[in-house]
Amino acid sequence: MRAVAGETLTGMAGEPHRWWMNELLVGYARVSTEQQDLTAQRNGLHALGVGDDRIYVDHGLTGTNRDRPGLRLALAACRAGDTLVVTKLDRLARSLPDARDILDELTKRNVKLSLGGSIHDPTHPVGRRLFNVLAMVAEFESDLIRLRTREGMKVAKAKGRLRGKQPKLKPNQAKHLLELHDLGTYTQAELAELFGVGRSTVYRTIERIRPKPPEPERPFAHLANPEA
User: Fold this and answer.
1) Comparing C-alpha atoms, which of 124, 48, 10, 141 is closest to residue 103?
2) Contact in structure between 114 and 9 (CB atoms under 8 Å)
3) In what order do the strands lie in the sheet with 55-59?
4) What is the spatial distance between Cα 205 and Cα 199, in angstroms, rounded to a whole number?
5) Is the pTM of this model over 0.70?
6) 90 contacts 138 by C-beta, under 8 angstroms
7) Closest CA to 63 of 169, 1, 139
């Protein structure tokens, strides 16, 4: 979808910017988890004049991860004179270095950046300062999220609610499975069906609880260790 001729948005420095007929609006949206929804960001981009066929998205990727397929496609779709549109800077990047790198790439290619409808002007001192402040806020918010996540995991672990991945079979079930397997009358597929687990679980359970044979004696082992 092409921008409307003469459409005006206010820049960060308060100066008007115009989008002409030969310039495209390219939208980008991102959410960090698969459970989150992109609808609000899509609606925001639509309201800013971006067509649905020009919106590129990343689902389940954090802003601190620079290697994002949707972001690569969005940047590749921009040509000189186009505008990359995001609803907020933290959708584009969650760290100050990444935000600056992306902005430098856009500036070198003569691509403008719209943050929620405000055109960022990297040549204006106020625009540069405001962009850096927004990028630092996005990075700070990302650090807070990671800190709260770590603290929540520590609390859950202290309360016994976070114990890591537990075996699918109880100890008595695992012992019974091994006994049936050693009888030789059941295949691993049959044992998996009998205990309601996958064949990989049967294999791992047998490997985990089967007594390990003693290591063979190595009469010359001391020769491999000069200090022995």
Assistant:
1) 124
2) yes
3) 55-59, 25-31, 83-86, 112-115, 118-120
4) 10
5) no
6) yes
7) 139
181: which 2 tokens? 């397997």
Dig out the tokens for 2 from the structure.
């092409």
Contact by Cβ (8 Å): 73, 145:
no
Residue 141's pLDDT is what?
62
Enter the tokens of residue 112.
């403008």
Confirm or reject CATH 3.40.50.1390 for domain 7-141, answering yes or no.
yes
Phi, psi at residue 185, to the nearest 5°?
-95, -10
Question: By three-state DSSP, how is residue 158 classified?
Answer: helix
Identify the pLDDT of residue 74.
Answer: 95
Q: Please, which residues have CB within 8 angstroms of residue 65's CB and are 6 or more apart in sequence?
A: none
Residues with catalytic roles: 32
Q: Where are the domains of the chain?
A: 7-141, 171-209
| CA pair distance 139, 159, nearest whole angstrom | 31
Reported confidence tier of residue 45, pLDDT bands at 50, 70, 90 = very high
CB 130 within 8 A of CB 137: no
Handedness of CA 136, 144, 63, 114 (dihedral sign): negative
Residue 49, C-beta contacts closer than 8 angstroms, at least 6 positions apart = 1, 3, 4, 7, 25, 85
Which of 31, 128, 133, 139 is CA-nearest to residue 95? Answer: 139
